[in-house]
Write a structure and sequence with these properties.
The chain has about 210 residues and is mainly α. It is built from ten helices and no strands. The longest helix is centred in the last third of the chain and has 28 residues. It is elongated and about 55 Å long.
């Protein structure tokens, strides 16, 4: 486009248009979501330590400026992402019985934890959490508000139905519900769950909760 470089000072000049605020123009939700998706892919591919804003921007198909306008650093980006996951959480089962609620929770959690992206990201973030207190705090909050929030809902509903007694140790109950599957899927990273594992886990957890 050609731009007129000279003007006649005696001629009235048009008033410049007021530009919209930059933030309103660039912080498009579709771009933000593209960046978030790129973070998952980049974390799974190279890990947190090697992850870079340049790599994220390249995967998202945007410039680095688009990323920096939303987050100050890759740390803030990952912390925001982990916090968002905590808010979304898992769907709370409501089947009408403790055992059925647990089975549905384990089926959904197992698929989520064994997803190729999640199975790469979670161990890496756990390792980074040992070195970075900010990541440790965000990850603990995400797990507590996500998985534990759903588990607490299952226990509360079972108590209301009379399947569990009112005074059980809530913290121990949440450990019993959430611990075994997370241990096998994320900590020791079993390549495949044994046949009938979720059924056996559901029965054992149900019996353990009723024994509290």
């Amino acid at each position: 486009m050609l731009v007129r470089m000279t003007t006649n000072a005696d001629e009235p000049q048009p008033r410049p248009r007021r530009r919209a605020p930059a933030g309103a123009a660039v912080l498009r939700e579709d771009v933000t979501e593209a960046i978030r998706a790129a973070v998952f892919e980049e974390l799974a591919a190279v890990g947190y330590a090697r992850m870079s804003i340049e790599g994220i921007a390249r995967r998202a198909g945007v410039g680095k400026t688009a990323v920096y306008r939303r987050w100050r650093s890759k740390l803030h980006l990952v912390l925001d992402l982990v916090s968002a996951i905590a808010v979304q959480g898992l769907p709370a089962p409501d089947t009408g019985s403790l055992e059925s609620d647990l089975r549905l929770l384990y089926e959904v959690s197992s698929r989520a934890l064994r997803h190729p992206v999640a199975s790469q990201i979670l161990p890496d973030l756990q390792a980074e959490a040992a070195r970075n207190p900010d990541i440790a705090e965000a990850l603990q909050k995400a797990l507590r508000e996500g998985q534990d929030g759903v588990a607490k809902g299952i226990v509360t509903a079972a108590q209301a139905r009379g399947e569990l007694r009112a005074g059980i140790d809530q913290a121990l109950a949440l450990d019993l519900i959430s611990g075994p599957l997370y241990w096998r899927s994320v900590v020791i990273r079993s390549p495949k769950l044994p046949k009938g594992y979720l059924t056996a886990l559901t029965g054992a957890t149900t019996a353990a909760l009723k024994a509290l």
